[in-house]
Amino acid sequence: MELSVVVPVYDEEDVLELFAARLRAALDPLGEPYEVVVVDDGSRDATPRLLEALRAGWPQLRVVRLRRNCGHQAALTAGLDRSRGAWVASIDADLQDPPELVPVMLTAARREGVDVVYGVRDDRTSDTWFKRRTAGLYYGLMRREAGADVPADAGDFRLLSRRVVDELAALPERHRVYRLLVPWLGHPSTVVAYRRDERAAGTSKYPLARMVRLGTDSLTSFSARPLRVATWCGVLGSLVCLLAMLTAVGAHLSGATVPGWASTFVAVLFVGAVQLLCLGLLGEYVGRLYAEAQHRPPYLVASDTADERRPTRPASWQR
Ligand code: UDP
Ligand code: MG
Fold first, then answer.
1. What are the transmembrane regions (predicted)?
2. Average per-residue pLDDT for the chain
3. Is residue 53 included in any domain, yes or no?
């Protein structure tokens, strides 16, 4: 098998057929053996049925069904772990990443002899102002924390060689943010620029809460710097405290000790808030440690059409 294309899919009934048609039109002319590994991330709409129908006319389509929604990065992990190609591309199903670019990436990788090809968005005008600004902030921060090798505006549209996929699979870390982990591995890479289109149909599966989650996961998995916030707050607090003590002694000696309700009140509130913030930061890391220590699998596979020993049972999703 030369090429695997991993596609995490969650409730994408509106766009799936369109996506399949465009991807197939891009892959068939390659004339090389390939597989498309669609990871159905516990969809509750017509997605499983549509996939079953598509499979009837497209032998290269393989469906890995997860038992329940495990999240985008976990679905990606499932697809990467089960892919068999010498090259593995990952792409979103919503046609924001053009499938026609997969062969371009493959050619670029072979021509330049690199292990990684990033799809980089050079035009985000189709995204909302808010998404552009938060993305700018995210990539800026992550380049600082995870290293300048992280290409700005590279999402999860990329091509990896088998070597990289195997290395990723061998990492003991379970909760992964691939857009940071892949550059961190440090393989020779190149980029292919593209214009990010609008979602062809359906709605985003990344509401604000999930974006925040990805952001905290990214930061905590690559930097312990937030933990130092507590230390710096402590140092600063001690200095302020020293000044306040001197003032207090001065006030006591001069006998002017009656006023001071507002300053006490504000100080108590402020110190309380800072302490809670630091506790919360600490909690983020403890939570990550806990999740990794539990050692639970990040995804749960219900069926894989390539797995003969465990045949798919469509009855399991027909409620
Ligand atoms: N996705 C997934 N599981 C999830 C959320 C999303 O597999 O829990 C898939 C989704 O079907 C799509 C890709 O991940 O193929 C990216 O999601 P989306 O396009 O909604 O994110 P956005 O482009 O809005 O950031
Ligand atoms: Mg999208």
1. 229-249, 261-282
2. 89
3. yes
